[in-house]
Write a structure and sequence with these properties.
By secondary structure, the chain is α/β, with parallel strands linked by helices. It contains eight helices and eleven strands. Bound molecules: manganese (II) ion.
């Protein structure tokens, strides 16, 4: 099995080295990770300048440090290394729970794997775990062992508490959002703002937040399709738009000609910033 290891903390993060060591027990490991910190960059890709890499070594493993985002790293790694079977992202220095997963670069690397039809697992630990990742290694091993047999698990978000009691399946906590703008001032008294995260207490049962609060390893299966199926069905029934006409006059299947026309229009769309060409 070929395992690509990435992260968003940067290629020299000790969390990545710990994950790569555990991964090597399951297959051949190659590290492709950002050349510096890219935390909270979400699923950004680098489209306005080219990507490149430098070869290096991380914990004895072949490694590539990329001047891009976590998603860039996985896309480039999968391109350069044929037949990647699994992408592991982490071990992140900081939990990726609840609505925070929207900002997570750690999860984005795993998500990029899923977008490419590969399997992706994101692994995160409390920020205070540094520098001793040894206690998490047996738990990372257990998680990989538990997830590998499930071929239908394309995208999984895993969070470790400080002292795990075991593994549980969870869903994403979406009740509240912990992102907050905190105002301050610079030395001259001018306003500055920190985009900050404040811990949320009292998570819903069975969620990722709840699991980590209770010292369980949270294992959340995710999907790429964000469509709200129930709402869609309700809207189509109660507030139809032009679905009736659309299905009557448009062929049900996409035609190569129509797809080609959309592609042409996209290609002709002017770039917003003329400097970026
Ligand atoms: Mn990070």
């Amino acid at each position: 099995m070929r395992i690509l290891v990435s992260n968003d903390d940067g290629i020299y993060s000790p969390g990545l080295a710990a994950l790569a060591e555990v991964a090597s027990e399951f297959g051949s490991v190659r590290v492709v990770a950002p050349d510096g910190e890219r935390s909270s960059t979400g699923h950004a890709i680098t489209a306005s300048r080219p990507l490149s890499y430098r070869r290096t070594q991380i914990g004895g493993f072949e490694a590539f440090r990329v001047n891009g985002t976590p998603a860039d790293c996985v896309a480039l790694g999968a391109h350069l290394w044929e037949k990647v079977d699994l992408v592991l992202s982490g071990l992140n220095l900081g939990l990726n729970l609840g609505n925070g997963i929207w900002h997570s670069g750690t999860l984005a690397a795993a998500k990029q794997a899923a977008l490419l039809g590969l399997r992706g697992i994101a692994l995160s630990a409390p920020a205070t775990a540094e520098p001793d990742f040894a206690p998490f290694k047996p738990w990372m091993r257990r998680v990989i062992e538990a997830l590998l047999p499930h071929n239908d698990l394309c995208l999984t978000n895993v969070n470790f508490p400080r002292n795990p009691r075991g593994l549980v399946w969870t869903r994403v906590s979406v009740r509240r959002y912990d992102g907050q703008i905190v105002p301050t001032t610079d030395p001259l008294g001018r306003p500055l703002y920190w985009f900050s995260v404040t811990p949320i207490e009292g998570a819903e049962d069975g969620t990722d937040r709840w699991a980590v609060e209770q010292q369980w390893v949270s294992v959340t299966p995710l999907r790429l399709d964000l469509t709200d199926e129930q709402l869609l069905a309700r809207l189509q029934a109660s507030r139809p738009l032009q679905e009736g006409i659309a299905t009557a006059v448009s062929p049900r299947r996409s035609s190569p000609e129509a797809a080609e026309a959309v592609k042409r229009e996209e290609a002709e769309t002017p770039v917003a910033d003329p400097q970026v060409r």
